[in-house]
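Lab manual, section 2.4: Encoding a predicted structure.

Procedure: take the sequence of the chain (320 residues), apply the prediction step described in section 2.3, and record the output as structure tokens. A sample record is shown.
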Amino acid sequence: MAATLYNLIVEGCSICYDGAVGNSFKNKLNIIAAQFSTITGFKDASIASLNSLRTFEGDRCFRPLTPKEANAIMAFQNEIEPNKSVVQNFIKILTTEFVSKQIKMLSRISIDTLNANPILCTALNLKTPEEFVRYNAYQAIGRSIVTSMGYLVEDLLLYSNEFVFDGSDYTEGMQTKFDLVIDRLGEVKTFLEIKSGFNDMDKGQIKHYAAELQKVEEGGNRAYIGITYGKKDASTVTAGLLKTYVPNWEEKTLVGRELWDFISENENYHTLLIQTMDEVANTILLNVSIVQKIEDKIVELTRAFYAEYRNLDEYYESLW
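Recorded output:
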């Protein structure tokens, strides 16, 4: 199960770990997470008490936590909030990780890492270093944020309900591994293929998914195409193709709020999601938007440009 206290402890401590999480720490976290039934119980647990965990026979469950492992656990204990649900704490820790990654990404960008295309920049009539830096900085940062956001959305959906599972573990369908499966004991399984928006599928993909939905439903299950934002009356090419090639398309698609509330089984989930994410973003970004952070970076990059190059022609020549 996804949105459980067990998974929250394992995922949260892994996110707070400084570096790649090895198998040793993963095994320790699995043992530790199995000991708790409340958020308060985990938050109040001391490192000494965790190190002293023993098996039924009296043996230590694992070798003592290393300083890095202990620091990760304590960092997550500091982040987790007993007055919030497991799902809310998942939203908080996942959003915290996402925003923190964007700040780190901004700090790593330099003139050399912009990977600017001199042909494109010339075609766009970028005449000054300031124009060049601004355009390429927003392009590079935008690509990175969009990619990271895709992973965040997947996790936010996966951890929105304790009965949501990774679809890669299921074999239903002809060729498709569905993204998510709602699998509650004794009930019909629901398979979902998730897309970001109404422009993410072409004719071939839509016809393919229509066949996959039909195959899954023939097996006695339910199946949907989920679109994370937008509305069903959107005037896009993809919306038109869905209407054409997916029988009863309005019943087979879950769009925007409809998708989030359906998966979470909470009709106010979209509000909870946005409010929690807003709180996290304000805290980490100190009540300024990412745009201001980008603008500050552009000023820094422009100064670095003039420190190394006299003009754009000199810079462009260095790229050939």
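Check your result against the sample. The CA atoms of residues 156 and 215 lie 27 Å apart.
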